[in-house]
Amino acid sequence: MANHKSAIKRAKQNISRRIRNQSSKTRIKNLVKQIRLASEEKSKEVASNLLGSAQSVIDRGVKKGVIHRKTGSRKLSRLTKLVNSISS
What we know:
By secondary structure, the chain is mainly alpha-helical. The chain has one domain (about 5-85): CATH 1.20.58.110. It contains three helices and no strands. It has helices at about 5-40, 45-65, 70-85. The N and C termini lie far apart (about 55 Å). About 15% of the residues are buried.
């Protein structure tokens, strides 16, 4: 464990940030999974609604530094391509 006051504080900050990042990443993963399931069921309306919320969550994750900018862009691009490929 840390011995200096600043190192103790840094360890506490790392714990709280890790928890925050985990919840954000889990939310992103769940939304991506829901969109993929909706695309398998050929429900374009549901998938396009979920895509809007996924875009918001992914952009927020990129802004907060949870995921890399290019990773977020790649995820959005692939999801958009998937939703657009659904024939209604």
